[in-house]
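Sharing a chain and its predicted structure for anyone who wants a worked example. Both blocks are below, sequence first, tokens second.
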Amino acid sequence: MTKGWTQDSLRHAMSAKGLKSGKRGRGQRQKKAEEVQIFSEEPSLHTIHAGEKIIVIEMSPDDYLYGVGLMQLVPCMESAKPKQLKKLYKIKKKEDYINWQKEFIYEGSLKVLRKLLKKGEKLGMPFLDYISDGQEGRNRAFLAKQMGMKKIPVTIVYKGEPPCFVRTYRVINA
């Protein structure tokens, strides 16, 4: 299982972003962990093909992990072995989907992401592709959750009308 950020490592990541992590001083406002912008402002995605559209929304890291779980459950069931199927059929609630996605979080990826943040680099924005049932950003969303971020930007790729759930989130860029 992955380890959470220690107070020192979070302070270091915040200082790498030029944020104060101690007491307020000389009129500077202390930023909370959820205010730290660790993602780039540009959507990170594959090549956009004819007819594809994108929208950037703001959602919680848990909602992102839930969306990935919903998207991937059926394909996983189609290729699962009987033992795995028994486990997959038990996934019913939102928490079940989120916990299932935690199995795919890699500590090695989290270490690389933390190093990038310490260097002051921004991470690529997570995305959900509803055309090819793809996603990119599970580890980034999990890291944001560990850092205490309440909302993250997510790029949604779709054709025609946006998925109906998009209406429940704040649109950042359409």
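Comments welcome. The longest strand covers residues 52-59.
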